[in-house]
Amino acid sequence: MSDHFLALAQPRRPWLDPAVLREDFQRTAARQHPDAGGDAGHFAALNAAHAILGAPASRLRHLLELTAPEWLHRPAPIPPELADLFMQMAAARRARETFLQKHSAAASPLGRALLAGEKAGLVAELTAALVRLTAATEAALAALRALDAAWPAPSTADWERLVVLQASFAFLEKWTAQLREDLFRLGG
User: DSSP per residue over 9-60, as a string?
Assistant: First the structure.
């Protein structure tokens, strides 16, 4: 298995400063770029490492794969606030799907124009949901930075928190991408 932390000379920790990671990646990539005489395969590996380490969910999963693979097979309880958020996301996405069905069924420009108010309300609802997701992501990032203080000698409780955070980030990243796609499809 590739060690993406090693590839970008990063410490094996849950938290990596995004600006430092980007700067280290750019410096290394400039030296390894095929146009600068570097190997195309190695350059592709650097890009993969940056993509994995740059997203909290994939970085935490990779950290677990490298340092504590036994924790990957344990169920991660979903925090109650994310369960509530999931229900809100599901309702908002159902509303979007219902609206798109109505919009595509509208046979005339007038029929579609009559849906403009509903569309505006839906865009506002999805935007508000995206704001809630952003706040939840910021809270998870704060928890991740706090958990990072336990490294390099995490306790069992720290590993448990890391597993929960990894699952939380995976959900948050997925929901954020879905909502952004929904807003794009609605033109909002």
Answer: T--S-S---HHHHHHHHHHHHHHH-GGGT--HHHHHHHHHHHHHHHSHHHHH
Distance CA 25, CA 173 (A): 22
The domain total for the chain is: 2
Q: Is the pLDDT of residue 46 over 90?
A: yes
Give the residue numbers spanning the domain of 110.
80-186
167 has pLDDT over 80: yes
Residue 32's nearest CA partner among 17, 47, 16, 11 is 47
Gap between the Cα atoms of 128 and 183, Å rounded: 11
Q: Where are the alpha helices (DSSP H) in 68-154?
A: 80-105, 109-113, 116-148
What confidence score (pLDDT) does residue 188 get? 61
- Name the CA dihedral angle for 162, 15, 181, 96, rounded to a multiple of 10 degrees: 40
Contacts of 149 (CB under 8 A, 6+ apart): none
* Domain termination site, one of 13, 39, 54: 54
| pLDDT (tens digit per residue) in 102-121 | 999 998 999 989 999 999 99
